[in-house]
Amino acid sequence: IVDFVDGGGLLVSVADNDNYDDEQDRLNLLLAELGLDSAHALDSVDPSCPHYGTISGGNPLVESVKTLSYASSSDLTVAGDGEVLATGESGQTLLVYEDHVLLAADSGIFHDWCGPDPGNYTLYENLFNAWCDMDLDGVDKPICGGDDCDDDNDAVHPGLPEVLDGLDNDCNGLADDGMVAAGAVIVTEYM
């Protein structure tokens, strides 16, 4: 899993309020191994259903999502680079995004037997699209039919001008091609 996430994959981690302590501990250990500071918390909030979460922030994963339905939830501990994407009716954190990992406090967000909100379907579509374009530069990675040669860096994809930065900005296989560093000595004539 570490190689998958380090390679640009999008991992979705879900822990319901009915997960057992040892299951959640193992899940949180995996998240820590991935370098995440955010984690699942075993709280039971908003029992029964339906409930509707509020979207926060401008992260592309929740773009055009107005609300999310959920059945009942646990909570998430947000730390480090964790970004809160949605909160529940009781103020608990429902969704957190951190370093290619989406943490969810209720599986009902993905299969709500109470009747999914249209926002849930928009989230599903956004998740797929984000996996294809993790750096959100508008160019998909090759496995999704695109030709982005570095889908972790929005300063690298075909069509960009080359910049003197040690990167292959235009994805032509050559870093800094045609660039001359400031202060470089250029020999134009041999004697």
Tally of individual helices: 4
Q: What is the general shape?
A: elongated
Biggest β-sheet: count, sense, barrel? 6 strands, mixed
Mean pLDDT: 84
User: Unreliable segments (pLDDT under 50, ≥5 consecutive)?
Assistant: none
The strand count comes to 8
**What is the C-alpha radius of gyration, as a whole number of Å?**
21 Å
Order of helices and strands: HEHEEEEEEEHH
Q: Give the strand order of the largest sheet, numbering strands 1, 2, ... along the chain.
A: 1-8-7-6-3-4
Distance between the termini: 59 Å
Helix content: 10-25%
- Helix/strand-derived category reads alpha+beta
The portion of residues forming beta strands comes to 15-25%
Verbal overview:
The chain is of the alpha+beta class and 191 residues long. Helix content is 19%, strand content 21%. It contains 4 helices and 8 strands. The protein has a 6-stranded mixed beta sheet. A two-stranded antiparallel sheet has the order 2-5. A hairpin with a 2-residue loop joins β7 and β8. The longest helix is centred in the middle third of the chain and has 15 residues. The protein starts with a helix and ends in a 59-residue tail after the last helix. The mean pLDDT is 84.
